[in-house]
Structure formats: C-alpha cells, structure tokens
Amino acid sequence: MRASVLYGPRDIRLDKCPDPALRRQSDAIVQVTAAAVCGSDLWRYRGVIEVADPRRMGHEFVGIVAEVGTEVCKVRPGDVVVAPFNASDGTCSRCIDGVPASCARIAYWGGQDEDGAPVDAGQGEYVRVPLADGTLVVVPGAPETAQIPDLLTLSDVMATGHHAAVCAGVDPGRTVAVVGDGAVGLCGILAARRLGAERIIVMSRHSGRQRLALQFGATDIVGERGVEGIQQVMDLLDGTGADSVLECVGTRESMEQAIGVARPGGGVGYVGIPAGGAELPIDQLFYNNIIIRGGPAAVRTYLPDLLRDVLAGEMAPGLVFDLHLPLSEVAAGYAAMDERRCVKALLRP
Amino acid sequence: MRASVLYGPRDIRLDKCPDPALRRQSDAIVQVTAAAVCGSDLWRYRGVIEVADPRRMGHEFVGIVAEVGTEVCKVRPGDVVVAPFNASDGTCSRCIDGVPASCARIAYWGGQDEDGAPVDAGQGEYVRVPLADGTLVVVPGAPETAQIPDLLTLSDVMATGHHAAVCAGVDPGRTVAVVGDGAVGLCGILAARRLGAERIIVMSRHSGRQRLALQFGATDIVGERGVEGIQQVMDLLDGTGADSVLECVGTRESMEQAIGVARPGGGVGYVGIPAGGAELPIDQLFYNNIIIRGGPAAVRTYLPDLLRDVLAGEMAPGLVFDLHLPLSEVAAGYAAMDERRCVKALLRP
Prior knowledge:
2 copies of one chain form a homodimer.
Chain A: E1 2-8, E2 11-16, E3 28-36, H1 41-45, E4 55-56, E5 61-68, E6 80-83, E7 86-87, H2 93-96, E8 107-108, E9 126-129, H3 132-135, E10 137-139, H4 148-153, H5 157-167, E11 175-179, H6 183-194, E12 199-203, H7 207-216, E13 220-222, H8 226-236, E14 242-247, H9 252-260, E15 262-270, H10 282-287, E16 291-294, H11 299-311, E17 323-326, H12 330-338, E18 345-348
Parallel strand pairs in A: 11-12, 11-14, 12-13, 14-15, 15-16, 17-18
Antiparallel strand pairs in A: 1-2, 1-4, 3-5, 3-9, 3-18, 5-6, 6-10, 7-8
Helix pairs in contact in A: 5-6, 5-11, 6-7, 8-9
C-alpha cells in the first residue's frame, strides 16, 4: 500500500509501505477513505520537532473496516468508522473517567502500540488499528460522500474545539471569546454555538477565516492582537470579560490573550499544544479566580454525541477543509498549510 | 475603642483607636464578638510583606450590629452577623457571577473603601462595615457562645476550605487528597466530606493536626513529602491519583505535591495565596488534562449554605481554634501562630 512518510524538514513523500496485517485479535484493519493534515503535523514537517528516522504521518482518518480480529465485537467488516487521534482501550480507569488521551494502553498513529510494534498512520491506504473496540466509532448507515469531511473533523479538530468549549465551561446564554482562527478555533466556534453561547467573539486577522467564523456562529470579530486586542474584546463585553475563553493556538501570546479577556471567575479552555513559551501567570489566575483547563481532547468520549449532530445536519465542521487533494499530492497539502494558503487539507487515497 | 495595630515585623499592639462612625448610609457598625488571626496575617507580621505605616489587622470576625445607615435593609441593630474577608456590594456582575472577591466596589478590612476612606479591621472592638447589605450575613436566632468559633470560621477558613473543594470538583464517592494541614486544609477535609468524598487522604506531619484531620473525616494520613509523599498517595490510590486535590498552602513544593497526586482529568483546587515560587507546569497539566482552579474564596456566596450546616450541628469547623485569648493578648496569639504552637488563634474583645 501507499502511505505518507516524512523524511526530514519539508520532505514528505508518498511511499510504498507494507500492507498491514492483524497482530492481536483485538486489532482491526481499516481502509482509509479520507485523512487530514493537522496543524500539529507541521511541527515535525517544519523541523520544530526533530524527525530522527523516517516517520509515517497523519492521525486523523475515516475509513471502512476491512478485517477484524476474533476478539473485536463492536465493529465489523464493511462498517464506516471514525478514528480518534489516538487508540484507547475504553476499559481502563482513565477511559472510564473520560480521559481516553491518557489511556493506560494508548497507541499513537505513526508511533507504537503497547507491544512496541509500529502502528500505521492515517495518511495512507490502510491502517492497523489496535484496540479496535475501544478506539473506533461506527457511523450508522452509509454516509454520503459529501459527509466525509464532516466526519473526518470528528477525528480531531471538531472534537478538540468541543474540548476547548467544554473545558472553558461554555453555558447557554453566556459570552465566549475564541483565540485562534485555525481549524480548531473555527470548530471551537461551532462547539460554543452548539452549547448555547449567546455571544461569540473570535480573534482573527484573516478575511477568509473571518467569513467562515461568522458562518459557524461567531457574533463579533476582533482583528487586533496584544493589548489592543484584549481591550477591544473587553470593550465589546462592557469591560467585564468573557465567561469562557477558548485558547486554540498554544503560544505565550495566545495564552496571554486568552487569560486577558477572561472575566473574574471565568474559564479558559486551552487545547493548543503548549509551545515552549506558553506560560500560566499564577498570580493573575489566582486573584481573578480564572479556571484553567485543557489538554488533548477526549475525542473518543465526545464522538458519539458529535457524530449524531453531524449526521442530523446540525453542524457542518467539514467546511474547515478548504483544500481537497488526492493522497498522491500529500506534499502539496503540507506545503499549502505550511505556507498558510489553506486552513486544512483533506487527502483521499 | 481598642484594636490591634501592626507596627513592623513581630510588633503588634493593642492600641486605642477612634470609635467608628457611619460614613455612607450603606454602612453598618458592628461590635465584634470574636476575631481570628489568619495564616496570611503572618506574612505582614513576619515582614514578608512590608508594612510601611502602622496597619490595623484582622479580616475574620463575627459580631453584633450596633448601628446601620438609612439605606441598609438586610441587617438590623442587634443582629448577630458573620463578615466575609472582604466587603462586597452583592449587586455588581462579579458578585452575581459568584466572585465576590472580585467585587467592583470591594473593600478590605484594614484597607480602604471605594471612597478611599480607611476601613477598620477585624481584630478590634468595633468595625465600620461598608456595603453592609452586600457584605454581612445574619445568623438567625441567638447563637450560643459555644457556636461562636464555628461561625467565625465562616469568615474565611471554612469558606476557603470549601472553595478548595468546589474548585477541585469534589463529587460524591470520589477520592480526594488534601495538601496542607493548617486551618484551611483541615476545613478542606470537612468540606470534602460534606460534598460526599469517599476517600480523603491528607498530607500532614503534625500529630495534633493529624488527629483533628481524622476527626474531620480524613480516611488516610501521609506524613511524607516530596517524591516519597506523592508515591505514598499514589500507592493508596492504586497508582491512579486522586480525582480532586485541595492545595491549601501556596508554595512551589505544595503545588508540585498537589499536581503530582492528581489523576489525569482530575482537578486541583488551590487556595493558598501563591508564594513567589508557586508555579504551574503547563506541560504536565496539559498532557494530563489536569484542571487548575482557585483563588480567593467566594465567602459571601457560600456563607448561607455553610451557616445552615453549622447551625444544624452537621459540622464543627471551630475546632481549628486551639487557642482562645482575650483581645488584649493579641500579641501572644500572633506569636503562638508564628511559632507553630497553635493552629489558629481566636480573640475575644
């Protein structure tokens, strides 16, 4: 089969790789229908995270189950499935507590499973899925092709935007600020609207993304950053600050923005992987009783609810994919995201 | 009247001070029945926070209303009242949002009111209370003398322990770890038990405090600190970590302990005023989805509920006062707390 392999900074190729086979009877083999390029993939692509050996890439995919082990009972060959950005067993205390990203038997796409065996990544034709029962979520019926992008967002960005909103404590009728207009920030807007927020202010400087933000439910756009940006958000909220703030970037600047626009007693939900400079100013948080909550999303936990709303047509997060390419053009997809020529790329094997 | 005045490090005296009078018609004058010395008072007493001018001390008191302005309608002369550690109007958006410690018109005992006029502190015979309707909580009936210590804890330490428990997300049947065995940590145990925690592990090295901890509902004591202390707590919880952790100290070490014993997805409620070294390690928090929430307690918000339980005899937080002195011996009270010869001192004018 063919799959993307990153060899070094800005050197990603579509290689011929071994067809996966079941290793444990709890595995499944999934034929990938669509995969995505994630903003966090760019860290390795840009060399910010070093890639010592060639690495299979991609942690977001939907597909059709091709084969299952004898212990797999929740998915069957022919099922259309969504895969969260990590594999999890669904039975350990962490999964039961709703933290599948800390699963005791966690495996990452492109990494290793609990036996130390390599795990395929999403940007390829087939993937061996460890812990298939705990990991995969079946899409009931036969989804239309047009729904694939929506379903694909449930692998990561829509679930992550939802995590930001949940962590920020978004409640019906309350005010929300979203820092970041990437795919996750845009999905955070959708999530905040879905949870009933009345006012959703997004901090965005890109006109194309601003349009999508408004389409997703943002009520106000603030283009400024830094102190001016904070002041603008405060002015829009009568000087009070937002009840909930979604931090969807992960830099020191974005975290400062997020904390700066939260009202006393408000919540900051942060899902941008903390870049080195991100900091939490304890005095500012303490004296304002600002809640800080975030981390890798509980994708597997959220997936059934979000899937239901996508299938019911209540939200269309797939609009974040503004570049659709065949898998063979994976390098073009990475380049477009790297150069900010698109929000997010979808690849079809 | 007489009131305590701090002149410099370890120099606190009972001075003759002007009798307070109403300044605004929203003020009340309260005759103090009992006041407390707080661990945070020791910061100024020890010179950690510099005292440039002589400063009136004490932010925890209960008393009897002596006089009210014409705009005061919720308290009347003769009412027994509990005062939270700050005055608040009860009507601004922050008070309504349950963050009275961020009230738009906040005044601190021993500080200034919104007009810049000095506000009396609690360790004295009388106190002018700004924003009386928003600040004071009336104790129904005529409480017995024996209940005074319990009521006095509602000014700060019991409400603060409760805040730690609320912020840590204590839920019925779940596991709790408490870092700190001072008055707030001990009250945190009571609060956790009151909220239905099943297992309450307290980190404590002092035998007297351990006894009170067990009396308050702790199920386990861990005497070790640092890495060994974290390991002991983890061992008690099958390696999983606590669902909720109450950080009731405020140092770098105590925060490390607290975060170190929280399970993935668990909550740390922190109420110890952050000493310079306290830090929030963002990577550890992020990758474990640990929630960080805390700050000055919402005393005024919590007071009615906590008061009801105290009056019903369901908890006796007043046991944290292991030293009762007349106000004239205020210096002895500070010295005993400074030298760790008592947990907390109660002063009676």
